[in-house]
Specification:
mainly alpha; two-stranded antiparallel sheet; 8 helices
């Protein structure tokens, strides 16, 4: 209805690192897995099946059609080949702790969120409108995702870029 697309994110996005860059388990990964199991067990002990169902449904609805739910799409839905991630610069960026400055964050992950807009202003040749494709708002991202039929859903993880680990070239988009 209305040309809406089903959500692929909740089912496949968390598993992408394992399929793209297989790695051996290290101490931090094992600690994370144990912590997740312990916290889920604690929630099950305190709230039962309803508590776990609440968490699962919350994660599903968090990826819904609300404009702020478009963050994952904005960051990783490939609308321009060769650009693996995108930024969005909404008027209320500070309210979301500048999470929309995604490209800047990946280039300089140690810069505090409060300084990412300054970084963008200091280097317009790298982060300006002419240098990178970006969204004006999360609503702009939402409408492009929902109604631009020229970009198939498979583009969510379809990229043509080189990385230190080799080329990222999962399934090609339907043409």
């Amino acid at each position: 209805v209305l040309g809406l697309r089903p959500s692929k994110y909740p089912k496949s996005f968390p598993l992408q690192p394992f399929s793209r860059f297989p790695q051996s388990l290290n101490g931090w990964t094992c600690l994370n897995i144990v912590a997740c199991i312990c916290f889920n067990g604690l929630i099950f002990y305190i709230a039962g099946v309803k508590g776990l169902a609440f968490l699962l449904l919350s994660a599903q609805f968090a990826n819904g059609l609300h404009p702020l739910g478009m963050r994952q799409v904005q960051e990783h839905y490939f609308v321009k080949r060769g650009q693996p991630t995108y930024s969005v610069y909404p008027p209320f960026a500070a309210l979301t702790l500048n999470v929309g400055h995604h490209v800047e964050h990946h280039d300089f992950p140690t810069i505090p969120w409060s300084n990412l807009p300054l970084l963008r202003k200091m280097a317009p040749e790298y982060y300006g409108k002419e240098a990178l494709y970006s969204y004006k708002s999360y609503t702009h991202c939402l409408f492009e995702f929902l109604f631009n039929k020229g970009i198939p859903l498979s583009m969510l993880f379809d990229v043509d870029i080189e990385t230190p680990f080799g080329p990222l070239s999962p399934q090609k988009a339907n043409e």
